[in-house]
Amino acid sequence: MAALRITNTHIHTFTAAHVPRYYPHPALYVFKRVPGLVRGLAWLLRVAGHPAAETLERLLQFQKEAYRGGQAEIFASVRRQYPPDTRFVVLPMDMAPIGHGPVEADIEAQHDELSRLARSDAFRGSVIPFASIHPDRPGAAAEVRRVVERLHFRGLKLYPRLGFPPDHPVLMNEIYPFLVEHDLPVMSHCSRGGVRGRDVSVHAADRFTEPAAFIPVMRKFPDLRICLAHLGGVEDWRRYAEDGIDPDDPAARAANWQVAIRDMITSGDWPNLWTDISYTLFRFEENIAFLRLFLSGGARAEALSRRVLFGSDFYMTRQEALSERAVCFRLRNALGEETFRRIAETNPEIWLGERGGDA
Ligand SMILES: [Zn+2]
Fold first, then answer.
1. How far is the CA of 110 from the centre of ligand 1 (A)?
2. Which of 13, 128, 220, 337 matches a 20 to 30 Å C-alpha distance to 26?
3. What is the pTM of this model?
4. Measured in angstroms, how far is the CA atom of residue 248 from the centroid of ligand 1?
5. What is the domain range of residue 58?
């Protein structure tokens, strides 16, 4: 069997310099400035036998990652978890315009640093850089054009929970047409968890983020390849497993984002709709049995498995107990070589526009 080259379609390398000063709460500024405080608190809780100690330890791991220095240091720490020829789609984050205070390095600087990383001797060929932009920012479309045309970025990351709908006029009128013209894909955060703009309610954030929010986009741009990340997210997987889906409620399937995404993909109505399993499958024990069934046996599973991408969501996953390497091996083992190759090698190549059609 031919060697397999993994493409991880979802990782992050942004650093503390790209996170607003007062995010997530002004009171945490002091903890962020002095990481030793979290460690001290974790130690106290451990001594007291408090169950929150483990959570804090993981938070500390996560914080360590974000404060590791530059994007290159963060990237080096994920790369060692994978075979040497693995490629990684790196997704920036544009958090300056969301009302949580200033960032040290703005999105242009974040893009430029990522571009240097992608072109560096050490990592050339391993980094596939994506742009990310808040469409309310002045010059949003020009920045996307700049990094695609001059720096050869390969797609766009969206994060609607920050406070914008996916059919925002700047996206619809300027950015999506440009992406279609250049045959580049979109990755959009699609789970109930994650960062929110300061003045965005949970309800509003969910309306911006939910799978149906992309229907107007897919109607207008049927050729645009869109990936809704996290296959609905851990919260909707938990509800699916614990509460089930009420068969008498006609709205129940659409209300669970995991079911909604599977229904939309397998309906055949949205041939360029994709999803990735990042973060969600790092709750490995809870979720792997479901994923395995969703991807094996029957026409529906076949249709879905042609549209699922392997991604991890490093370094968000540092909050979970299993390492990238551990999950990657378990996944390959549980799904089998053929399915794993499809989601980790073939599908990412199609989604990125490197090979045509439905292999
Ligand atoms: Zn992510």
1. 16
2. 13
3. 0.89
4. 34
5. 16-67
